[in-house]
Amino acid sequence: MEKKLVVITGASSGFGMELAKEFSNSGHPLLLLARRLDKMEALNLPNTICKSVDVSDKGAFEQAIREAEQVYGKTDLLINNAGVMLLGDLATQNPKEWKQMMDINVLGVMNGMQAVMGDMKERQGGTIINISSIAGVLPFPNHAAYCASKYAVRGVTQTARLELSPFNVRVIAVEPGAVATELLGHTTSDQIKDGYKQWMQSSGANRIQAIDVARTIKFAYDLPQSVLLRELIISDTKQD
Ligand code: NDP
């Protein structure tokens, strides 16, 4: 059977890059989106369009999807994976960092959803997978705004599931635990970064890899369209 178009945001590193390789290995044409084009192009995947797009730019996000659909047909799977984590003490964190997380992590996800939902409803098929976080299920110190953004992603996902399931469209929330990627690198406080790294080492919850998350997501997508894994929490076995 001909494999359908998969759109992956945040494909220039971490989970998104592993997802791109996994879906490409099984023959899907891809649209990869992130700001760093060179990283995505370096993957050199067949039947793949890479575009430098900021997901908070609704128009550019939508346009990239429409252009890829001209080439590969309608989007069957959108993985809203792009995100930033700027950890900070709520008492002192610069509110610009709160806004950045809301714009990218929450509105970026909603921008992507709106770009594909109409077509999916019309053709009664398709899947949207939104990457929330275990920090969208549980609170953690220094995570106030990040938690707010990831709880919001879960809320949006669960609401969209109610709106789209009558149209046979699957909407899935994924809540990964801590995995070593570039994600921590954007936090501006060295003290918080060091504390996070120490916790990962001392807890032993540092064995899970981005590829494990990518494979789990692919498993959820590969189930029949009539079967919905609504929500999945995946973490290192040793994470609390
Ligand atoms: P990375 O930092 O490795 O990857 C994040 C990706 O998002 C990059 O490709 C980055 O690309 C992209 N991105 C960031 N901002 C934008 C933007 N404005 N527009 C387009 N793309 C953007 O982190 P992970 O792979 O770990 O994270 C992926 C997702 O998983 C995130 O949503 C994160 O919150 C979530 N997550 C991660 C966990 C972890 O421990 N690693 C745990 C739970 C959830 P570029 O900079 O080129 O734009």
UniProtKB/TrEMBL annotation:
UniProt keyword Nucleus present: no
PROSITE patterns named among the record's database cross-references: ADH_SHORT (PS00061)
SUPFAM superfamilies (UniProt xref): NAD(P)-binding Rossmann-fold domains
Start and end residues of each Ketoreductase domain: 4-177
TM annotation in the entry: none
UniProt cross-references to InterPro entries, sorted A to Z: KR_dom (IPR057326), NAD(P)-bd_dom_sf (IPR036291), Sc_DH/Rdtase_CS (IPR020904), SDR_fam (IPR002347)
Secretion signal, residue range per the UniProt entry: none
Listed Pfam families: adh_short
Coiled-coil boundaries: none
Gene3D superfamilies named among the record's database cross-references: NAD(P)-binding Rossmann-like Domain (3.40.50.720)
A Gene Ontology cellular-component term: cytosol
GO molecular function: oxidoreductase activity, acting on the CH-OH group of donors, NAD or NADP as acceptor
Record's keyword terms, sorted: Oxidoreductase
Superkingdom of source: Bacteria
Family: Belongs to the short-chain dehydrogenases/reductases (SDR) family.
Listed name of the protein: SDR family NAD(P)-dependent oxidoreductase
Native organism: Myroides pelagicus
Organism phylogeny: Bacteria, Pseudomonadati, Bacteroidota, Flavobacteriia, Flavobacteriales
